[in-house]
């Protein structure tokens, strides 16, 4: 296997630093630490557990009220 300049540690390190600099400049407003974290760890996904919990609670509270109201309306008329 021939050694090439692309596979050498110095060239790869230089390319990595250039990529971090470009990413920081264009996507993270020049913040190199945020750019490096985003490139290494990937984008963080937000979970929607709290909104799903609130929706479930409101539905759980609303369904018995709707059922009780329709039952009372049916019996009154």
Summed up:
The chain is mostly helical and 77 residues long. The chain has three helices and no strands.
Tell me what the structure shows.
It is a single chain. 74% of the residues lie in helices and 0% in strands. With 77 residues, it is mainly alpha-helical. Helix 1 (9-27) crosses helix 2 (32-41). The longest helix is centred in the C-terminal third of the chain and has 28 residues, at 49-76. The protein is rod-shaped. The model has no long low-confidence stretch (mean pLDDT 84).
Task: Describe this protein with a few key phrases.
mainly alpha; 3 helices; 77 residues
Secondary-structure map with pairings?
Blueprint: H1 9-27, H2 32-41, H3 49-76
Helix pairs in contact: 1-2
Biggest β-sheet strands, sense, barrel: none
Supply the helix-strand structural class.
mainly alpha
Please indicate the percent range of residues in DSSP E strands (runs of 2 or more): under 5%
Termini distance? 90 Å
Q: Which bin fits the share of residues in helices?
A: over 70%
Q: Residue ranges: pLDDT <50 for 5 or more in a row? A: none
Overall pLDDT: 84
Radius of gyration from the CA trace?
28 Å
The helix/strand order is HHH
Number of strands: 0
The helix count comes to: 3
The shape is: rod-shaped
